[in-house]
Structure formats: structure tokens, C-alpha cells
Amino acid sequence: MASKDQTLPSLLVTLLFLLLFSALLSRISGLESVVDEKEKFSEDLLIRPLSDGKVLSHFYFKNYQRTLGSAAHTHVFPKAISQLVSKFHISELELSFTQGRWNYEHWGGLDPIASSNAKPSGVELWALFDVPLNQVDPTWRNLTHALSGLFCASINFLESPEGVASPNLIFESRLKSGADGFVRYGALPREAVCTENLTPWLKLLPCRDKAGIASLLDRPSIYNGHYHSLRVHVKRSGPERAVVLEQTLTIVLQPTQIREGGMKELPHWSLTSLFGRQLGGKCPVAHSSHVLLELEQSLVESVKASADKTGGKVTSGVDIPDNSVFHVSPYPEAVLVESLDSWDVPKFSSVMLEYDLEKYRSDQPLNLAMHWKQKMAWSSVRGPFRVSRFLTGSGNEKGSIAIEMKKNFNVSSENGDSSGGDLLEVTVFQMVPWYVRLYMHTLTARIDGNPVPLRDITTQMLVTPAEDRLHPAVLEMHLKLPRNMVSLSLTVDFDKGFLHIDEHPPDADHGFDLPAAFLSFPTSQTRRLYLNHQAADNKDSSLIQTLNEAGSLYVYTTILLVPLATPDFSMPYNVITFTCTVLALYFGSLLNTLRRRIGEEERLAKAGSGGKLKKAIAKFMEGKSENQKKLIKVSGVILVAAIGVTVSYVLEHFEAL
Amino acid sequence: MGPVLSHVMVLLALIAGGHATLGPAHTNNWAVLVCTSRYWFNYRHMANTLSLYRTVKRLGIPDDHIILMLADDMACNARNKYPAHVFNNEDHRLNLYGDNVEVDYRGYEVTVENFLRLLTGRHDAAVPRSKRLLTDENSNILLYMTGHGGDKFLKFQDAGDIQSNDLADAFAQMYEKKRYRELLVMVDTCQAATLHSQLYSPGVFAMGSSLKGENSYSHHLDPDVGVTVVDRFTYYTLQFFENLDIFSNTTLQSLLRSYDPKLLDSHMHYRNDLFSRPLDKVLLTDFFGSVMEVEHTRTSYPMYGDDMGVYEPEEEVEALKASPFSEEEVSEVPINPGKFQSTSDLQVTLGLLTLVIIVSVVSVTLLGKGDIVVVIFSSNVEIGGGYYSPKDENDVQRRHKRSDLNGPAKSVALQEPWHVLTNINIQFYVVIEGRWLTSGTGPKAVPHLVP
After folding, report:
1. Domain of residue B86, CATH code
2. Is B317 helix (H, G, I), strand (E, B) or coil?
3. Which tens digits make up the pLDDT trace of A4-32?
4. ipTM score
5. Which residue from A25, A152, A508, B409 could staple onto B403, CB 3.0 to 4.6 Å apart?
6. Are A507 and B38 inside 8 Å of each other by CB?
7. Domain ends where: B263, B288, B313?
8. Which of B41, B50, B77, B106 to mutate to test the interface with A (most CBs of A within 10 A)?
9. B276 and B334 share a domain?
């Protein structure tokens, strides 16, 4: 009995202690989770071999800040961005710096990477502001200046409204999530992109290029590539208006190609051959850090076909990282397979090899390499249409702009467009500066070469006519096209305007670049669903999460170069000098003619030299000796000089007073 | 002992005739580097500017104090065989573009208007800080310009030009607005001397690569890049700067003397009539570098403490707590002058004093009548202060070198005799037949004490 009495209190005490302890533990863990969620940074690198032998590298850095305090201290989130977002009331912003042209045919057009990272050359900026309408333009103006300072670029040239559009239709699908506010869009097609833009971009990363995936960014290798696009995307989302910052850098590099027997072999590549560096571990503050190698569906298909041919094995038994076609080293930690929805895995689908950088150190770096064993032909997933834009007409006075869409062969009815039914939906956005004067009534559409009335294919059309030096012409069309069509062309005629002499850039003879037009296909989804069933925790790659999200397809056209009539810049000078000479000649001779009286000179000569004063002096001097005359002359000179000096002194003094 | 020594120093300076002091030295350095030429064949102008950018950055001017204006993009130009590289020598040893270049004005932004706005500080309210010259009356500014010029003008991008009187008026406005303390203008263009012929604002020192009627030539062609990569004047300037570091005592006079008209193929011209300091006393780092005093304060940022969770040995924390650095606290701490921490300090100091006396006596006896010897013996150290315990040799050196420009360091205490040696300047000013000869030990001459 006594022992029981003793055990009960001790048990109670133990229980109490345990309770306290668990409460304490939960509090600590709760604190931890709060700290975790406040800011989160993750980094990823996706590498994809392209069918033309080049290699696509996509650097993806995602930064998350839950609350946006004005003076709040941030650990990993760049303060410059949070200040920008709070000061300019930005709901969403995207800025891209691009050099080169995305090859939609060979590098793909339908996947999320191509759709969101294929950007027009130069700078493109759009932003959604959460301010009243009358505040939008001043806010945009200040934003362009702030960004130009932040990213060492001339983005401030977008401050003037003559190059800025306020699109409505084209961003509808992009801003689907009930975002209200006003959008402004601007582009600088001529803007150079180089190291000075990368430098500030890297400074937004918590580890800069000192550790983690960004340490691969060797400047010469990047700018030696065929295409590079630097992108900053800021978005506020969720009920708490958390700020999500995505920084991406997309590069297409050409590994050194070895020719064997005149045949173009697929080049082997490794991180060291592409960037001259290896990956020595992750950025220490990164929540997750992954390197992904994506193999396209048709490549996987070819590999499996080749394995079938040679080994006659069962298709599912092909070892993706090491097979008869290529060999990938090191062996990946996980292999993810693209699926149509959560459990349905098709027969052939893209494959993602995943490497977690957590397992690599500087003394044991990751040098991802791909070694081809045999030549293999495959193609990337192209978009539904091949889009091009060009100028027609001849002469330096007028012409027309044409946008042509040609159906790609591989588009079949079973492709992504599930909701479109028999109709294909396309939205076209085109912004043209005021000095290219569009005649909107000449806008014609042709389907398969035959003119079609616009009202038959357009569901919505917004036209903002240009106003000289105030705003550009903006054309937005929402089209519904028959699914069986092969090609569509839209043409519009234009005249070329004249610029003032001081409106020409220093290299006006180069011509003027028109910003790229772009098209969106709201019904085509760019989504690659990779489900990682092994990684149940939230240490999953954030890039894969982004790929899993559905987005609509965007296609950019190239920029257009329009030569304008440029004046002879020395002309004003010539005109001024010539006019002045003529005027001077005219004025001088006229004045001469008016002033001169005929015969006056002779009269004056007759009247003798000298006037009354001289006569008076001569009278005064009469009857004086030579010495007296001399004295009078000298004193006269002195008197005059004295008067002069006094006058000048008095004047000076007066002035000084 | 320290204050006594500094008194001696002041006294000696007064005896020596006491050149009017210029007040306190500048507190910040700025550089405005302008390349005004566009197009690939003007590659060398970009390379000139970037070379200067690299030099001033190496000598300590931070990126936010450098305004770099490049009229075109050379590094990523389609014609450049070496993307993201700019070279100023055919040996290609140095990539001027580097990894961390920050260009503030580029392309079409490099205009006369923007340049004058930058100098005079008349910007639109929206212009970000990184594009402004945020100088004050204590700033020394280096202005480097290169491009194509002529008699009294410099072209901007083949589309506009700046006249010499515009430049002079801009400087005058800067002077009125107290936007600089001293301004060094360096111009590498044809007929560069004409560009600064009309300057009239005090405190401006101007130098140019060529006289009126002369051309400034490029130095050499790089067959790989395909264009000439550097101009002669800039090339020899860089050659001179190559061996200088932030602690260098080299003066402007030596730079000016280094230019050889035969090598330049033109005559370097400078004007110092608006400049008050003698050129042999103007350190190059006054303009091309940034020498700043760094003082650690404990008040603004809690570097040590429980809240930081940083491991700190207890005694060390205590020791640091007892040695505050902030000025207010320093003034409160009683200073006990004239007390040495150890007898070895006393011995070393006395020995040095004797040495100085012997040297002066010897030099006086050796020299003839009418020659004057001035010996300045100064110490930057307040012996016996005991606020700062140097961690190692480098620490002392670093701190010492930082502090010597701006008067006596407030908190360097001595533990080893060696530190006395490193912290004492002995300078001899000898006049022989009216010419000054200077010699000295110690890290750097004190500029405003020099005759």
C-alpha cells in the first residue's frame, strides 16, 4: 500500500514533467517552423540536352518572404526587392534581359521552360500595380528609374509613355488569380546585356556566386552561348500577400563538337566543359538545392526503341542513366517520370534525373557529365504553331507588317488542347512605336492564303491608336481559329513618320527596332507533371513544383528592324551658316544702299577737312609762338587724359557701389 | 609622451615657416569615368575607361563611389571574339570587364545633358542614388574623360559635344554648391589641353594628353581583337599606376614627370594655377584611391553579447568591454600621458630621440651656411592609452596605415617596442641652396604640415 502511495505521486510528477517538456518542445518546434516559413530560399539547375547538340541550362532561384515589413530585417530575401515591392505597390513584376533568339523549332516551345524563358532580345518589363489609376503612370516611371539603377541598364528609357503599353487581353491568362490593378508593359529591343547586368542580379542571391549553384556562373561561358536570358519575376501571392521572387538564368551553350569521319557527333558534355567549374555543394542558406537533368520524351522513346532493337529487352527495363545510347555520370539519386495526372504514367514520357546537392562537398564536387555512345536523332516538343513576323513592301516610305502562324506537324488533336473543341484560341499582342504609323483599316487576315473577314475569327479586338510622341499603337486581338487550318497571316500597312532631329539616337542609321510581338495560347497548357513519390517531405525541388504548375503558352516573335529616313545630321549647321551668309550679304548691301546719298562724298570733300572745333582751335592758336603752341597742345592732351581717367574711375566706383 | 611629441611636431612646423594648412583632409573619394565614343572601332576608349575603373577600384574606391559612363557595349558586342572580356593589352593577361563591373550610364544614356546633370547634381527626383554624384565639400573627385575631341570640345557619341566653357561652368556650379573639395580632371583626347583652358573654379587640377593642334594616338593594335586596344596617354598612366598600392606615397608630381613626349607622341599638359597645394605634396591616392579611416564602434552594432550566440571566451569579452572604441567613451576615459607601459618603450623612444639629435647635428655640421635642416619627429601614438590590444602584427600595421592620414590614432596602445618603431615618423627637410630635399621614415608624410 505504502509503495503504491509512493509511486502515484512520483508518476504524477513524471507525467507533469513530461507534459511540460512536450509543451516546451512543441513551442520550440513551432518557433522553428515560423522561422522557416518567414523566408525560404531554394536553388535549382536544370540541364537539358537539345536535339541540335546544344545544351540548355536553366538556373532557377526562388526566394520567399512571408511578410513585407518596411523596416523588417531580412535574412536571405534581398532587401532591394522588398523595398521595391512595398514602395511601388507591385503585385507582379517581370523583368528580363535577353541576348540571342530562342530557337522554337529545335529547343522546344511547348514546355514550361521554353514558354516562360524564351524572351525577346533586349529588355522586357511588365508590372502589375496595386494603385489607383491616376497613380499608375507616375509609379511606373519611378519604377523604371529604380530598376535602371538596380540592374545597371537603361530601363529608364521606358519612363516616357511613348514606348509603354497598357495591355488588357494578353495578360488575362497570366494574371488569372483574381489580380486587380493595372498593367504596364514596355520593351527596349536594343538594350545590351552583359556582365554588368548579371552582377546586380547575383547580388540579390544570398550566396551570390560564391557558393551553391550560382558558383557555376562563369561570365565568359555564359556570354559565349547562343542564347541567354536573365529574368527576375516578383509576385505577391496568397492571403498574406507573401512576396515570391524568382530569378532565372537560361543559357543555351554549344559544347565543343568532335567530328568523326565527317559525321557530326552529338557532343559529350560535363559541367566542367560547359562552365569550367564543378559544383562543390549547395548554398548553405538554401532550403533545397537540386541539379536536374531532363531528358525529353522523344529522346527517351528513341533510347527505348534502340534498346529494343539491340538487346530485345522489355521496354520498362531500360536503365535511363546508363544505356546503349548515352551514359550519365554520376548516377542520380532519383529518377522522376512525367505523368499526365497524379497516377497515370504514359508509355513514353520525359524523364528527370535528380541530384541533391546536399550530398556534395567542395572536396567531393558534382561534375555532371553526359557521354553519348551513339548518334541519336530526336526532336524537342514544339509549340502548336511556328510564328514569324516580317516586313513586306519596298522603298523607304511605307510597308506592312505581317505576322504569320504556321501549324507545326506534330500538333495533333490529342495534344494539350483539351477544352478548345474545334477551335484554337490565340491572343496576339503587338506594340508599335508612333513613328511607324499603322493603318488599322488595312488589317487583313488570311487563312491558308484566303482572305477571311476579321469578324469571323476575332472574338475581341482592342486597338489603341498611336499618338505622336505620346503613346504607341497597341493591337490586341483574341482569335478563334478553325482547328484544321494550316496557316494564318495577319498584315497591316504602315507609313513611316519623321522624327525631330534631336529625337534620333546617335546611331540612327542603324534603323529602329520594333519590340517583339507575342502570342498566347490560353488553351494550351505548358505543364510537366513530375511527381516525386519518394520525397514526401517538402525538400522537393522548387523548380519541379514550378514545372508542375499549369501555365498558358507564350510565343514571342523576333524584333523587327525598320530603317527610317534619317536626315543629314550636318544639315542644320549647313543651313544655319548658309542662311546667315545670305542674310548678311542682303542686309549689308541694303543698308549701304539706303544710307548712301549720291554725290555726298564729293560735297564733303569740297567743304574742306575739319569742322567748327578745328576752326576754333586754329583761331585760338593764331599769333602764338611755336613754344606756346607746343605747351598748349601738351596740356590739352594731359587734360583730355585726366578727364578720361576721372570718368573711368568714377564709373568704376559707381559700378562698385 | 604622445601629446608632447605632437607639440614638438607642431612647433617644428611653425619654425619651418608653417605653410598655410588646408584644413582637414578630404573625407571621401569619388570617381567619374566617362567614355564618350560609340562603335566598335572605338574599342580603345572603352578599354581606357575600364582600365581607370579597375585602377581606382583596386586602390580602394568602392563601386558606389564610381560613376562609370560607357557609350557602347564592347564586352558583349557581336564583333567581340572574346565575350564578356575587354582587354587593354594584346597579351590578354587582364580582363578589364572582370566579374563585378557595374556600369551606371551606358549606351544612349551617355549624353552631354546627363553628364552635366551628373556633375551639377540636378537630377529628376526619380533618378536612383547609384546614378548620382553624391559628393560634398569634403569630396575629392577624379574626372576621367576619353573620346574624340578637338579645339575646346569633346564629342559625345558622334551626336553632340561638350564645349570647354560648358565644362568650366559646370565646375563653377559644383564649386558654388560645395560639391567638391578638390577636383582632378584627366582627359585623353586629341587637343585635350584646350578642353581645360577655360576652367576658373578653385581647387581644380586639370591634365590632358595633348596640346592644341596635337593628336592623341592609340598605343598598339591587338590583332586578335582586330582594333587598337588602348591610347598612349592612358597606357603610360596605367603603367605608372601598376606598382602603386593604396598605401603608396607617390605624388602627383612624379606622375606628371613620368610622361615622356617621345612615347606619347604628344605633349602632356597640365594646369595647376587653380590648385592650391604644391604638386609634390599631393598624393596620388588623394584622387585615385580612397583612404578611409575605419573606426570600430561598439554602440551601433552589438558584435559581442549574449544575444548573438557567438562563442566568446569570457576574459576576452571582459577585456574588450574595458576598451571601448567610440569617441564619446574615449573622451571619458582618463588618459595618463607620459606614462610608458614598459621600460623598453622608454628606451626605444629615448634611443630614437638621440638618433635624431645626432643626425641633425651631423647634417648641420656637414652643410654650409644658409642651409636649413628641419627635423620633424612625430608620433601617431598616444603611449599609455591602453585602449587597444593589437591581435597580431598585421592588425597593427593595418590599423596604423589607416589612421596615419587623419592625425593621431586615438586608440593604439603599445605592448612591444616594435610598435613604437612602426608608429613614429621621422622626417628631415633639408634646404640646400634653396632646393628642398625630403627624406623620411614612417608610413606617410603628413600633407598639411609640409612646407
Report:
1. 3.40.50.1460
2. helix
3. 455 555 555 555 555 444 444 444 443 44
4. 0.80
5. B409
6. yes
7. B288
8. B106
9. no
Average pLDDT, chain B: 74
Predicted confidence at residue A136, as pLDDT, reads: 93
**Final residue in a domain of this structure, among A228, A253, A278:** A253
Mark yes or no for CB contact A192/B108 under 8 Å.
Answer: no
A504, amino acid identity: H
Interface touch B108/A154, C-beta < 8 Å: yes
DSSP assignment of B98-112 equals: TTT---SEEGGG--H
First to last CA, chain B: 25
pLDDT at A543: 87
Cβ contact A439:A493 at 8 Å: yes
Per-residue model confidence (pLDDT) at position A213: 93
Query: Which of A230, A253, A276 is the last residue in one of the domains?
Result: A253
Determine what percent of chain B is predicted with pLDDT higher than 90.
Answer: 50
Tally the domains of chain A: 4
Q: Is the pLDDT of residue A205 over 90?
A: yes
Q: Residue B148 pLDDT more than 60?
A: yes
Residue B131 has pLDDT above 90, yes or no: yes
Q: Is A35 on the interface with B (CB under 8 A)?
A: no
Catalytic residue ranges of B: 148, 190
Q: Are residues B83 and B199 in the same domain?
A: yes
Q: Specify whether B282 is located in the same domain as B332.
A: no
DSSP summary character for residue A419: S
> How many residues appear in chain A?
657
By CB atoms closer than 10 A (0-12, 13-18, 19+), residue A629 is: exposed
| Alpha-carbon torsion, ordered B335, B337, B341, B342, to 10 deg | -170
Grid coordinates 497515370 are at which residue?
Answer: A344
Residues spanned by the domain of A597: 571-656
What is the arithmetic mean of pLDDT over B374-394? 43
User: Are B257 and B199 contained in the same domain?
Assistant: yes
What residue numbers bound the domain in which B60 lies?
25-288
Cell 493603318, located at residue: A439
| Of residues A146, A154, A507, nearest to B106 (C-beta) | A154
Please check the confidence at residue B384 and state whether its pLDDT lies above 50.
Answer: no
Q: Are B199 and B167 within 8 A, CB to CB?
A: yes
pLDDT at B420: 41
* Alpha-carbon separation of residue B240 from A582, B183, B288 (angstroms): 55, 20, 12
Q: Are residues A401 and A361 in the same domain?
A: no
Cα–Cα distance measured from residue B401 to residue B409, given in angstroms and rounded to the nearest whole number:
10
Cβ-based neighbour number of residue B60 at 10 Å: 17
Exposure string of A357-370, with b = 16+ CB inside 10 Å and e = fewer, is beebeeeeebebbb
User: Which residues does B147 contact at the CB level (< 8 Å), separation at least 6?
Assistant: B34, B35, B36, B37, B42, B45, B71, B154, B155, B156, B189
Residue A499 shares a structural domain with residue A405: yes
Count how many domains chain B has.
Answer: 2
Q: From residue B49, how far is each of A205, B43, B81 by CA, in Å?
A: 29, 10, 20
Identify whether B311 is part of a domain.
no
Q: How far is CA A98 from CA A28, A190, A223, A290, B205, in A?
A: 46, 10, 11, 25, 43
